[in-house]
UniProtKB/TrEMBL annotation:
The keyword Transferase belongs to this UniProt entry's keyword annotation: yes
Origin: domain of life: Bacteria
Residues included from the entire protein: 533 to 833 of 833
An MF annotation (GO) of this entry: metal ion binding
Keyword Ligase: yes
Name of the protein described by the UniProt record: DNA ligase (ATP)
Ranges that cross the membrane: none
Length: 301
């Protein structure tokens, strides 16, 4: 008898009370993972994921027909989640107010999945105080052709430079090609101060090592370099959240790692939804207990 190998255990019919329709629909042609597999993954990581996802304006990458088909970025609550997903009113640049999505529980998380969500992206500020960032993210974007060793090295160099400024930082593999260096903040500064710091810091690093880095988003500036994408740190920008699946070829996962682990990592995206058991053990264990936690104010630069 041939038993099909499934990436994760068979999903509950109704994880967190949410009926998942079309559970056998293939979402990832790369490995055959289905909507049911995705729902089972998110149901299992809900607890550790909500520590990062909860109380935060979020944007969703939704691909209702699967990841190779039409996908879209959803920032606002268009009223299509049946009241199962929370929201927070946020003032827009033009002075109007829009409701942003906030996912605070397993039911909200699985409702998003039922609606075709693959990726979860978060603001750098909590929903309870959207004008005061609690997290800075340096998104390291390597030029095509640069190997992961260069990215790894860059992340560690940023850690050391941030450390010289008294800032603790933590690495997350994005599940794509790069690494995000996450700096927790105490929320004592506003977006203007945080963006200004991210801009100055990234430009200073790029000026010191122009052969390796650019702080300019133009693709032509990236040739053989790593783009230090500091633009994640402006009001309204997002970064992919820990434990989010990525809408890539394989269902890779954005995952917190330690600095020691990163130093030994051979490839950019070591985890997929098939590794959920390992991700859960890691999230519960001692290695990642302090990941992303530091009560620190942004210094002046
Ligand atoms: P990789 O490591 O492959 O670069 P990534 O998640 O860092 O993966 P980026 O393209 O560098 O991908 O984007 C960084 C972040 O910017 C994303 O995590 C996402 O939150 C945000 N972002 C990307 N594309 C868009 C978009 N079209 N609209 C709004 N925000 C986006
Ligand atoms: Mn990136
Ligand atoms: Mn980027």
């Amino acid at each position: 008898e041939v038993v099909a190998e499934r990436p994760v255990k068979a999903p509950d019919a109704k994880p967190f009370g949410v009926a998942i329709t079309h559970p056998d629909r293939v979402v990832f042609a790369g490995d055959g993972s289905t909507k049911g597999d995705l729902a089972a993954y998110y149901a299992q990581v809900a607890e550790p994921m909500l520590a990062w996802l909860g109380n935060r304006p979020v944007s969703l990458v939704r691909c209702p027909q699967g990841r190779g088909k039409h996908c879209f970025f959803q920032k606002h609550d268009a009223g299509n989640f049946g009241g199962k997903v929370g929201h927070v009113p946020i003032r827009e640049k033009d002075g109007s107010t829009e409701d942003y999505l906030v996912v605070d529980d397993g039911e909200g998380l699985l409702t998003c999945v039922q609606m075709g969500t693959i990726e979860f992206h978060g603001w750098g500020a909590p929903a309870s105080d959207v004008e005061h960032p609690d997290r800075l993210v340096f998104d390291l974007d390597p030029d095509e052709g640069l190997d992961f060793a260069a990215v790894r090295h860059a992340a560690i160099e940023l850690r050391d430079l941030l450390g010289e400024l008294g800032l603790a930082s933590f690495p997350m593999v994005s599940g794509g090609k790069g690494v995000h260096v996450v700096v927790p903040l105490d929320g004592s500064r506003d977006w203007v101060a945080v963006k200004d710091f991210a801009d100055r810091f990234s430009r200073a690093v790029a000026q010191a090592h122009p052969e390796r880095y650019t702080a300019n988003m133009r693709k032509s500036e990236r040739k053989g370099r790593i783009f230090l994408d500091w633009l994640r740190n402006q009001r309204g920008a997002t970064a992919v959240l820990p434990y989010s699946v990525r809408a890539r070829e394989r269902p890779s996962v954005a995952a917190p790692v330690t600095w020691d682990e990163l130093a030994a990592l051979e490839q950019a995206a070591p985890y997929t939804i098939a590794d959920v058991a390992e991700l859960l053990v890691r999230a519960d264990g001692a290695v990642l207990r302090d990941w992303g936690r530091a009560d620190q104010a942004l210094p002046d630069l």
